[in-house]
Amino acid sequence: MFKRLSITAAIFTAAAAPAFAHLDPAEHGSLMAGLSHPLSGADHILAMVAVGLWASQIGGRALLAVPAAFVGTMALGFLFAVSGIEVPFVEPAVLASVIGLGLLVATAARLPVAASAAVVGLFAFFHGHAHGGELGAAGALQFGIGFLVATAALHAAGVGLGIALGRMGPLVTRLLGALTALGGAALVLG
User: Fold this and answer.
1) Amino acid 109: pLDDT
2) Helix (H) and strand (E) counts in the chain
3) 17: phi > 0 → left, psi -120 to 50 → alpha, else beta; which?
4) Can you give the residue ranges of every domain in the chain?
5) How confident is the model at residue 27 (pLDDT cuts 50, 70, 90)?
6) Taking a C-beta distance cutoff of 8 angstroms, is the pair 49, 154 a contact?
7) Please, what's the b/e burial string for 40-65 (b: 16 or more CB within 10 A of its CB; e: otherwise)?
8) Is 171 exposed, middle or buried (0-12, 13-18, 19+ CB in 10 A)?
């Protein structure tokens, strides 16, 4: 089962090509635009899969609590954005989340579940605000549901991948974390 899940995660990540990014809500509907939006940028994909990888490293209650904290707090950030509440440093915080989450995975950081949820929640708030700021002509509710579902799927892919890779030992997952952090640094410099 985990082999299939990791293959599915790899296919899911590879299918997230920028050519399909930012579907026009008028043409594809707000739900589809929301579903596609987290798949439209490397920053979102890397951070959201890293959340799942980190949750798999922590294990136990973190498998659900850490991704759930991300999704819930991301929804709050989205509400701030659609309500017109400005938040400074949104894009730098999103990029910092890729580097930070990658480093947490690379070091296999062991924090209490509540602290881990708080860390991802902080990053998630900025991701949610960024999504809300890119709403465009999409209907907020449908778009929001779409990107929350896509985010949860990316987290699930990260958890499944992390569990599958964890059976081979911690090194591969930690390497993915390091590559995520390097990818985040490349995004900052690019």
Assistant:
1) 97
2) 9, 0
3) beta
4) 29-189
5) very low
6) yes
7) bbbbbbbbbbbbbbbbbbbeeebbeb
8) exposed
- Residue owning tokens 């990540």: 13
Q: Which residues lie closer than 8 Å to 126 by C-beta, 6 or more apart?
A: 77, 87, 89, 90, 93, 94, 97
> Residue 77 corresponds to which tokens in the numbers above?
């950030």
Q: CA torsion sign, 174 to 180 to 181 to 186?
A: positive
Helix (H) or strand (E) holding 184: helix 170-189
Instruction: Report residue 63 as tokens.
Output: 């498998």
Residue 130 makes CB contacts below 8 A (sequence gap 6+) with: 77, 81, 90, 91, 94
> With bands split at pLDDT 50, 70 and 90, how would you rate the model's confidence at 6?
very low
